[in-house]
Write a structure and sequence with these properties.
This protein is of the alpha/beta class and about 325 residues long. The chain is built from 13 helices and 9 strands. Helix 5 packs parallel to helix 7 and helix 10 crosses helix 12. The radius of gyration is 19 Å and the shape is globular.
């Protein structure tokens, strides 16, 4: 059965809207609900701040240029921890009867290294030892976060999705230096793979990697231990789709982002979206019936920029497309 899920982020700016996001996610995508992220609450609730909140053996603080490594946790790091704990409290309260598969999301080691600054400025990416230390601390944080989620929710299985939107830029030497006049040196694939392995090894038995960036090295990610790939179908080229096909052939999960993240002028129909996925499978020579149980339908990326109404509608469309791909809509198959 093809199921629906989401990438992670959701619209909202306060605790009440977070509680509503959890209710909607548990209700609208029950086959693979996820722990929502509300970056509209501030930097401490964004994808980087939320991930730094899981790291306990390094200190961070928020500077005008962004997050920075420090000797001890600053007020913003402590706020990020508090927000994450509150979010988990909300999930625990509303998910008391949940027994299915749950997904949580954290930022990957290379996106962190390209975002977080060293104590004296410039990115962690610029320092081999610092980026190694950050990746190892993240791996410990992922393990602790996963254990905390499992204590709170009696889920049958927890999927950890690692977000790596900056990885293509890291590998190609395209991350700007602090001055803006230069670029950081490219990280070689073996080092990139090693850091990802540390994190993915601690992310349970089915770690996913998500990226909406063009040029994502999907083969490298699979080699580092990713057992699920998640991407925006509109930016996937022929090589990317071949990597997704190889993952499906290996019995691994593939999440295709097909629903717009904000409401378009013309809302796509569930039949049109289903046909889009079926055309891709045809091009790849894959039998929809054979891979249906491995497919996940999601919005193209996070829904933080959407209206609450469109976030709900996008989730509904994902679920409808999943049903169609599972064969419940004979009309769609006949039209092929």
């Amino acid at each position: 059965m093809t199921i629906a899920s989401g990438v992670g982020s959701w619209p909202g700016t306060d605790a009440e809207e977070y509680a509503e996001a959890v209710r909607v996610v548990l209700g609208e995508v029950p086959d693979l609900p996820y722990l929502p992220e509300l970056p509209g609450r501030g930097v401490a609730a964004g994808m980087v701040g939320r991930t730094l909140a899981t790291i306990s053996n390094l200190g961070f603080d928020l500077q005008p240029a962004g997050w920075r490594l420090t000797d001890s946790s600053g007020v913003d790091h402590r706020r990020a921890r508090s927000l994450l704990a509150q979010d988990l409290d909300q999930l625990e309260e509303q998910g008391q009867d949940f027994r299915g598969v749950l997904k949580v999301q954290l930022t990957g080691p290379w996106t962190l290294a390209a975002t977080v600054e060293k104590p004296r400025g410039d990115k962690v990416l610029a320092d081999h030892g610092a980026r190694r230390e950050l990746a190892q601390a993240l791996a410990e944080g992922v393990a602790a976060h996963l254990a905390d989620v499992r204590r709170r929710v009696a889920a049958e299985h927890v999927v950890v999705q690692v977000d790596e939107p900056a990885l293509p830029a890291v590998l190609s030497g395209a991350v700007p230096t602090a001055s803006g006049f230069g670029k950081h040196r490219a990280v070689h694939p073996p080092e990139a793979s090693e850091a990802l392995e540390w994190v993915l090894d601690e992310a349970g038995t089915e770690p996913w990697v998500h990226s909406c960036a063009a040029g994502t090295p999907w083969a490298l990610l699979r080699g580092a231990g990713a057992r699920g790939l998640s991407g925006d179908l509109s930016v996937l080229g022929a090589d990317d789709l071949d990597a997704f096909a190889e993952a499906l052939d290996a019995g691994e999960r593939v999440a295709l982002g097909v629903v717009p993240v904000t409401e378009p002028e013309t809302v796509p129909s569930e039949q049109g979206l289903t046909e889009r996925v079926l055309r891709v499978l045809d091009v790849l020579g894959l039998d929809p019936d054979a891979v249906s149980d491995l497919l996940v339908v999601t919005p193209a990326c996070g829904l933080a920029g959407a209206s609450p109404a469109w976030a709900r509608r996008a989730s509904d469309l994902c679920r409808a497309v999943g049903r169609n791909l599972s064969g419940t809509s004979d009309a769609v198959r006949e039209q092929r």
